[in-house]
C-alpha cells in the first residue's frame, strides 16, 4: 500500500529547494577540483585530492540533497514536521555548505588547521538536523499513518546511520587536526560504510518506497522487501561496527562476509527496482527512469566487480567501486529524483499561491519538460563512463572526465534555473490575475 501525500504539511518552498540547488553547484566544484588536480586524484583513494573530491561528492552532492529530501518527505509522506523549518534549514544549510568547503580545502591543500573548524561546522549542521528530526519523530511517535510504515521505519534507520556517520567523521576530523589520537584505516572504512550504505543508501531506499510508485507509475515494493531490506542493511552495519571495535582474530574474514552481505542486499534492491521500472504501467522510459536504470546497473556492477576481484585476488579496485557506488548509484538516483521532485514542488507551490483556478496554469511536466531534461542524462552517462575509465587509467581520462562532469552538472543547474524561471512567471501571472479580480 502506498501512502497518499499530505501536501498541506509541505514546508515552505525555500526549505528543501536550497539543498537541491546546492547539489549541482558542488558537482561543478568537484569537476573543477578534478580538472585542477588531474590524474593524481583518481590514482589512489588516499591522495589529498581524492579525499577532497570524495567529500565534495559525499557531503556536497549527496548528503546536501538527502537532507532536503528527508525534510520534504517526512512532512508530506509521514506528516512529520521539523521544528522551525525555515530557521533550521537556513542554519543547517549554511553550516553544511561552509563545513564541506573547509573540509575539501583541508584535504586538497594539506592544511591540518582547517580540519577542526570543518568538523565543528559539519558537526553543528548534522547535530541540528538530527535534533529537529528527533523532535519530529518524538512528536509523532504514536502516529503511524497507513502506507507510511516502511518509509518512516527506513528513515529512522537512516537517521541513526547518519548519527553514526557524524560521530565517526567528527572523530576522524579532530584526529587529522591533531586533537584526538583515534585515526585508523578501519575507522575510515567504517565511517564510509555508515555514510554511503547507511545514511545515503537507507534514505534512498526509504524515499524510493514512496517516489518510485508515485512518479514512475509502478507497483509498490513487496511488503517483504519493504519490511526486511532496511533492517537487514542496518544489522549488517552494526555487525561491521562490532568487528571493527572487537578483537582482531578473524576480523578480515568477518569484514569480507559483512561487505558481501551489504552488496547482496543492495543488489537485491537494485534488481527489484529495475524489475518495477521494467514492468511499469507507462511503457516509454522518461528521463528519471533512465537515471534509475543507470543507478541500479551501477550498484549491481560494483557488487559484481568486488565479488569477482575478491575471488581472483586482483588489483585494488576501491576507486572504481567508489565511483560506481557514489557517482553511478547514488548520484544517478538523486539526479533522476530531482527531475521529479523539483517540478512537482514548483507546480504545487504555484498552485497554492492562487486560491482559485488561473487560466493557463502549467502542468507538472511543463515546469521542467522532458526534452530539456533528457540531454543532460546523456552527459551524465558520458561523465560516469569517463570517471570509471579514469579510475582504471587516470592519466588519459581524468581531465576529460572532469570536463564532461562539469558539463553535466552545469546542465543540471541550468535546467533547474529554467524551472525556477517558469515558476516565477506563473507567480507573476497569478499576482496579475488576482490584482485584476480585486
TrEMBL record:
Leader sequence residues: none
Keywords: Membrane, Transmembrane, Transmembrane helix
Keyword Transmembrane: yes
Organism from which the protein derives: Burkholderia mallei (Pseudomonas mallei)
Chain ranges passing through the membrane: 12-37, 49-71, 83-108, 114-137, 157-180, 192-212, 224-245, 257-278, 290-311, 317-339, 377-395, 401-420
Keyword match Membrane: yes
Protein name: Permease
Origin: domain of life: Bacteria
